[in-house]
Amino acid sequence: MNDPRKVDIYSAEHKRDPFPFYAFLRSEAPAFEVGVPVLKRAWLITRYDDVALCLQDSARFVKDAGNAGLRSPKSMPWWTPVSLRTLSENMLDLDDPAHRRLRALINKAFSRARIEQLRNRTEVLAEGLVDRLRAKSKPDLIEDFALPLPLTVISELLGLPEEARTRFRKWTNVFLGARSEFRMALSLPSIFALMRYLRRLVATRRRTPKDDLISALIAVEEGGDRLSESELIAMLVLLIIAGHETTVNLIGSGMLALMENPREKKRLLGDFSLLGSAVEELLRFTAPVETATERYAAQDIDLHGTTIRRGDVIFPVIASANRDAQKFAEPDRLDLARKPNPHLAFGDGVHFCVGSHLAKMEAEIAFGCLLRRLPELTPACPAHELQWRAAPVVRGLKSLPVIA
């Protein structure tokens, strides 16, 4: 392998096939220091047991930089824009007890029962999108199916007006594509626009509640506690982005994996009872979330002879952990009936993904609908011509032209 220190883990080239790089790191440098935009330097943790430990041990691997002796986002300079201060209130960047408090409130509003009510609507949406995809002369699986399905579901769940959804996608794309200080600065107008829109929408829902998640989050109460305005806005941003972004990647990359593994695709076509385990395996195999979001070392930590200092930034690499041969037999082989399958695609520990049930439900419906209606679906171009998105944390295709 070429010098691993020169690998840009946010580049499209890396996203195309990151797995050999991570196999090298698991073998030779399981705690590996890299340069990353904005944060400057960080440690990649790549072995399954180490990644699981990092996700589970919320005392030593913290989310709030202030708990690792660094400047906390909550102590930003006085001139920091209000919008950026507000974003720091999201529960993904907090430790307990602040995180536990917000988690209890979102769990109460974002219940499994509320998600299950969306099943029939999601099935109808999937069928309609397949109809549209079949009618197009040059269909694109991302643009015509994988993106609009989860974006519509999360938008309807939250109560986002239909006419605003294209703008939300544009704003979140700019935000997720901020791979450098320069691009971060360029993304600020989109962040400000998103926050302004959400503040106006929340104000409208306060005056006129509806049967949607925004109204439920405004009203939710736990032991006399409610979400503050900033917490509510930060929560909505998190739900909008996480509520569709990773599912887009799972559906797109998952269908590509099935098309590239015809024996497994045929296996699933012959037994749709495998859909549940197929989704779990495609989560493991395709890495729609490549790394967990950053942690900070709350103390000096020795890992395989390498000392990670207090305050250092750490990225637990989920894509690597889920291909670790110490945990998975033949990890680079797609096995839709794999059991057990203790993948870490939704994280682990106190920050385990709150939307995991929604994502799996959407994916089961999406794969089932596509395979039943379009069993001969194939890529319209060679794999090396496919465009992958250059972005932190997530891994997904820009587009996937298909022959339907």
Automatic annotation (TrEMBL):
One Pfam family it belongs to: p450
InterPro entries for the chain: Cyt_P450 (IPR001128), Cyt_P450_B (IPR002397), Cyt_P450_CS (IPR017972), Cyt_P450_sf (IPR036396)
Gene3D superfamilies documented for this protein: Cytochrome P450 (1.10.630.10)
Family affiliation: Belongs to the cytochrome P450 family.
Cofactor: heme
PANTHER family documented for this protein: CYTOCHROME P450 YJIB-RELATED, P450, PUTATIVE (EUROFUNG)-RELATED
The protein's name: Cytochrome P450
Keyword field: Heme, Iron, Metal-binding, Monooxygenase, Oxidoreductase
